[in-house]
Each structure stands twice: as structure tokens, then as C-alpha cells.
Amino acid sequence: MVQTTQLRAAKKFGPGYFIKEQMEIRHWIQEDLADVMGVSEKHLNKILKNNQPITLEIARLLSEVFDTSAQYWINIDTGYRLWLEQERSEKEIAADLKGTIYERMPVNDMIKKGWLNPFENLDDLKNQVLEFWGWKKLDFSVLDKQLPCLTKKSEAFNQFNASYALTWYQKACNVAAEIKVSNYNPAKLIALYEDLHSYTIKTDGINLFIRELNKAGVIFFVLPHLLKTYLDGAVFYSGQNPVIVYTGRYHRIDNFWFTVAHEIAHILKHLNENTPFILDDLKNGVIDKLEKEANELASKHLNHNEISSYLEPYLSYLTTLKVEECAEKYKIHPAIIVGKLAHDGKISYGNQPLYNKNVLEIISDSHKH
């Protein structure tokens, strides 16, 4: 008989591999070995595919056929089963880790936006996530302290959507850290805020206003919202500079100006140690004290009360000519007038396209991220 003392079991190979090796030496097929061992081909096939553990009886038969000890085959099978179990555990751990990352971050959406690179393996994804958050170890529990403040902001923010919103906020922080503007000057911002309405009718007024924000020490940029975040804008501090982020979710002229006016109100009135950032869903967000005050200030600086009073007598037969007359009188863009009246239910939302343009096509590319 052929000696098999040279055979060594490798962890990743089961007994089937070594049985096939011995069959090849003898030029046997499955039918031959099944006949010699006195087992069915079906049973032998399971053993060869490592789907059937080696029993003491099978180990004894193999030892007689191949002139080895029964313990030899038991050892090979045991080593293989232990390795297989370890492989399963590692895969389960990897699946859990990947599941946690996807649960907390909209990975596919971030890849589409270029915020993450397509990853080659789990380690690559993990390293990108660590770099994104600025962490040394992967621990999403640090975000849980921030989740309650978001889940109260809107019914749209359940635990996981709020985690996506915090992911968006982290990206906004990363972008803001790379932008340099003048030192923050609250007096300049207040003066600019008072004159905000006039910029709405200036040629290239949106980019002019953004430029003046930068001169007042306010960072501004456009960052599209992430899947399930429903955000319109946000404010926070990057170093000593306040930051306004606009998502362009609705990208109308009236939406842009109201969002910016709303966020400036937050900067001047609400950002502090207890409220380090505010993420706004202006359509469906909960209207708490801070949001109500920001809305009122935004309305004031966009001349909403004056608009309503002026046009109230004409609402039953309102014409574009009257809207333009109001716009001229109060130095305000007509799209803002139409947007205000639609929001208040005075006219149909179907009128909103009047005078409106896509602000994302107007805002300079240098402000888009």
C-alpha cells in the first residue's frame, strides 16, 4: 500500500482534499473508493465535499484503505471544523461592523456624492469612516448624546435618520474647517442683515450677499442634504467663525433668502455653548421657541408684514402687475412675495414658479461642496 506519512493537514483544507489526493495517486474514482470502503457514493460524496464530519467508523475505514491511523483523519477533520467555525465568527463580526456603519451612515449616498470613495474591503471602509469622523477607534456611541436634540426637531428624525443628519453635520464641519474668511464681526453682520432685502433685487445679489457674509466673518457654502435627512440649512461655529450651510433642497429664490435670513437669526440670537449647532427642516420641523423667533426675524428682514398688508385688499383678483408694484415699493424680489402668499395660503402653491429660478445655477461653484 502507498504510505501517507508525508501528508500534513492545513487549516483551510478539509479531509475531502486529502482523500481526493489519495484517490488520484491510485487513479480511483468515487465509485472505486465507495466500493472499497463499503459505503454509498452519496455518503462518500458528502465526505469529499466536507459536508459530512468524519465519524470514528469512517476514520477507521479510511485508515485501513490508506494505511494510516484513524486518529490522523479525526485530527484533520477537527482542525478543519475549528477553522471553519473561526471563519464564520470573523464573517459574522465583519457583517455586524458593516451593518452598524450602514445603519449610522448612508454609505451609498455618500459614495455617490464623493464624500467617501468606493471601498475595496471592510478595512478600507472602516479607515475612511475613522478619517471622516476624526476618530481613532470606531465608536458610534459618542453620537448618541447628540441624537435627542435632533429627534425633537422633527418627526422625520427618528434615531437612524438623526444619525444620518449628524453625518451630514460632520461633513459640513469638515468642509467649513477648510474655508478661510475674515474675522467674525457681529456689527457687520447685523448691518448686512438689516439690508438683506435690498440684495434680493440686485443683479447677482445672491453672490454679492455671500461675499458680504464672508467679509463679516461668516462662512457660507452649499452642501446637499443626505438621504432621509430633510434638511434646508444649518448654523454652527467653525473655530471663531459662524457657519451657514444651505442644502438647496428646494433651490428656489424665495427658499434661499428665507433660509439664509432664518440662519442669520440663529447666529445672532441662539448659538452658544448649550446650542452649538442647529440643523433646520423649515418645512416640517417642530416650531419651538428658537425656531419661532428665527422665523419672525427672517420675516421681518424680508418685509413679510409689509407685503401682506399692501396686498391684502387685492388678493381676490391679484395680478402679477400688483406683485411687481409691491416688489418695487418694498425693494424685495417678487419671488419672495409669491412664496410668502403661498405659504400663508393666500394664493395657490402653483404660483411659486413665478419669478423663481434655480438658485443652485446662480450660486458660484466656489461655494458648492
Keywords:
disordered N terminus; single chain; four-stranded mixed beta sheet; mainly alpha; 369 residues; 434 Repressor (Amino-terminal Domain); 18 helices; 55% helix; 5% strand
Main structural class:
mainly alpha
Please state roughly what percent of the residues sit in beta strands, choosing from under 5%, 5-15%, 15-25%, 25-35%, 35-45% or over 45%. Answer: 5-15%
Query: Unreliable segments (pLDDT under 50, ≥5 consecutive)?
Result: 1-10
Order of helices and strands: HHHHHHHHHHHHEEEHEHHHHH
Radius of gyration, CA atoms, in whole angstroms: 34 Å
Number of DSSP E strands:
4
Q: What is the count of distinct domains? A: 3
Outline type: elongated
Strands in their spatial order, largest beta sheet? 1-3-2-4
End-to-end C-alpha gap: 74 Å
Q: Counting H and I runs of at least 4 residues, what is the number of helices? A: 18
What fraction, in percent, of the residue positions are helical? 55-70%
